[in-house]
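tool_call: predict_structure(chain=1)
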Amino acid sequence: MLGRGARTLTSLAGALLVAAATAAGTLALAPSASADPLPPTAVAMGDSFISGEGAGGYVAVTDQNGVAQGFPGWASPNSNPYFCHRSANASIQVADLPGISRRVNLACSGAQPADMAAASSARPAGRTVAAQIAQLRTVAQTGDIDLVLLGLGSNNSQFTFGGVAAECAGRFVADGYTGWWEVWIHFINWVTGEELNERACSDADFATAAQLAAARAETTAAVRQVLDVLDEVDADGDHRVVLQDYTNPLPPAYAEQYRTEDGRSDTRDKYRALVDERYAAGCPADIDSLAPAHRFSQNLGSLVGGVAATLRAERPAAKITYLNVQRAFDGARLCEAPGSPGNSLATPLRVMDGPSGVHVQSFGPYDKLDIKRVTDTCSDYYQTCQESWHPNAAGHRALGQCLRGAWLAARASVTCTRASSGVITTQ
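tool_result:
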């Protein structure tokens, strides 16, 4: 039989063992600092309609060498990463996304499908930024990627949004200011062998069926690469990819005041006052170009929706949502109502007279040679006009509501529309 002292020592030893075991268990259960959960993160990838082109508030962008590039000046090469125009007002930044605590914008104005897996500088007219997938890998090191907003399709190896917009606006201005009969135009055509095209843009001028098919194949392959990398790097393997299509900045029909000016419409030759009026309002394009432009937007929607359907069929477990925003600006497009561009959700088409930083507000004081000079500025320094015909800050707030709807609905397809009251709904 143990004596009192021995029992006391034994009890004390047992108590110490229990305390040690309890402490060890507590230490084992307590999460270490290195095991802290990563913040739920939303990432934007793709082109100008995602980066925030037109919304202002552009931030510095890190180049492919890891150097942050701020505004380099209007006369700098358009390849500068800053001209990705990643905006603090972009939809990814302003959308109310419950459960998301961190937002990262990797999109770049002008981006093409090839830019997902390769540096943009690897192709003509690209910018010196790393592949967006490479940037996505870096984000995944410090964030749990729960949402990816992806916009691709309007720029590709077949056609680009900026090229189409410049072509159609250029034809309208050329027809209104020069006229087919002016001798000097025909003389220049005879010398250069080039034909000045003053006809309204048709469906084939936007994109042919073959071009759209090729663009869809390119876009599908690029999104597939994004999905592959997400499956590899996402911390918990749980994420939703929202494929957003495009809004058309121009209306199906112009408001009455933008149809004629000084008794002249764009169906006749030489209508300078009408060019001035529509440019000031932000919509220098032929009436006959509006219907083909909207069919082009619908084709882009079919392209993006088709990509989403193809990849959902390949990956039944993947969370992929097609977000249709083609009607998100209904009633608030450029020249859709009197008062444009101030009441529009899109930016007006604007050019500069040289890389001055000051946009020309009206063609009224300009003659045809002046107009050639300012349009040459757009081609020589594309950054001076690249904000044209994109969602403005208010437009991105509307698109942010669309994104919120897609995030909360968690469905395969979501359509976002704007009512005449201005209310944005998703269904």
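agent: Residues 287-314 form the longest helix (28 residues). Proceeding to next step.
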